[in-house]
C-alpha cells in the first residue's frame, strides 16, 4: 500500500516544486524535516496537523492549538490514524519532538 503525504492527498501544490509554490509558498509540512518518517511520511507530510502554518480550508492555519479541532475532523488525519494503526505516532509525541528540535537560544 502506497501511503500518501498530505500534499498528495489534498493536491494542494505547495510541496517543493509544486504548482502553487510561487503563489502561496512551500507548505511547512512539506519542508519540515524534523518529523521526517513519522507516521510513514516524508518530512511533516503525515503529521501536518501539528505543523504550524499549513494551508487548509482556503487559508493558512495557525498553531496546533488553534487548528486541532478542525484537523481531528479531517479525512486525511483519519486516514493516517487508520493506516498506521498501532504504529500511529500521537500528536503529543510529535509536538514533543518538535519542541526538542527547536533551535536553542545562543546566549
Description:
The chain contains six helices and two strands, in the order H-H-H-E-E-H-H-H. The chain has 107 residues and is mainly alpha-helical. It has one domain. The protein has a two-stranded antiparallel ribbon with strand order 1-2. It is globular and about 35 Å long. The model has no long low-confidence stretch (mean pLDDT 91).
Flag low-confidence runs. Answer: none
Largest sheet: 2 strands, antiparallel
Q: What's the number of helices?
A: 6
Q: What is the number of independent domains? A: 1
Radius of gyration: 13 Å
Which structural class is indicated by helix and strand composition? mainly alpha
N-to-C CA distance = 48 Å
On the 0-100 scale, what is the average pLDDT?
91
The proportion of strand residues reads under 5%
Total strands: 2
Order of neighbouring strands in the sheet with most strands: 1-2
Short description:
The chain is mostly helical and 107 residues long. It is built from 6 helices and 2 strands.
